[in-house]
Design brief:
It is an enzyme of class 2 (transferase). The chain is α/β, with parallel strands linked by helices and about 190 residues long. Helix content is about 55%, strand content about 15%. The chain has a 5-stranded parallel β-sheet. The structure holds adenosine monophosphate (AMP). The site of adenosine monophosphate has 17 residues, from helix 2 and helix 3.
Length: about 190
């Protein structure tokens, strides 16, 4: 199973991806987590992206496309993988299509988590409080506003992109975590 979880920051993509890892053994490919790991490791790439991420901007397509392309060949992706936070714009979506095609792979489904945007500020505030080791540098009102702006401009058009490809499904991301997981499990059982 190869799927994308689509939705604005705070929609619950990471939480749902982790549940899918636990329940189905798919690999969670979160570009945000991978970039934060690169920053924590102090790598050259990490140093390059830190400032960009902290203010809520997108890092360059080349970087994230490269990371994903390498990562999906790893053995833990054999059962399937969940793309969480990638693609985030049209160029990345097209690069993903091309990459999967070249690897002889096919996307099974794109699940869009629909949320009420004004509630995302409270969710992110809560996440900032609960994050072990301190809040993410971009979990604050200013960066979240920027991330939402970018989501609308660049990521939301992917809903139509995947709708046109006939692979889009939507779930109510405002429901309780387990109820969202149940909606997702139902979709996966049907694809
Ligand atoms: P996330 O953990 O998905 O909220 O991502 C945190 C930050 O990492 C984003 O605000 C971007 O700066 C960067 N990032 C993560 N994924 C991508 C992506 N696919 N394209 C560009 N930047 C990304």
């Amino acid at each position: 199973m190869k799927l994308i979880l689509l939705g604005p920051p705070g929609a619950g993509k990471g939480t749902q991806a982790q549940k899918l890892v636990a329940d189905f053994g798919y690999a969670q490919l979160s570009t945000g987590d991978m970039l934060r790991a690169a920053i924590a490791a102090g790598s050259e790439m990490g140093q390059k992206v830190k400032g960009i991420m902290d203010r809520g901007d997108l890092v360059s397509d080349d970087i994230v496309v490269g990371i994903i392309s390498e990562r999906i060949d790893a053995p833990d992706c054999a059962k399937g993988f969940i793309l969480d936070g990638f693609p985030r714009n049209g160029a990345q979506a097209e690069a993903l299509d091309k990459m999967l095609d070249e690897k002889g792979m096919k996307l099974d489904v794109v699940i869009s988590l629909e949320v009420v945007e004004k509630d995302l500020f409270a969710r992110i505030e809560q996440r900032a409080k609960e994050t072990v080791g301190g809040p993410r540098a971009d979990d604050n009102v200013k960066a979240l506003k920027k991330r939402l702006e970018i989501y609308h401009e660049q990521t939301a058009p992917l809903i139509k992109y995947y709708g046109d490809q006939g692979v889009l499904k939507t779930v109510d991301g405002m429901a309780q975590i387990d109820a969202v997981s149940a909606q997702i499990a139902k979709i996966l059982a049907e694809v």
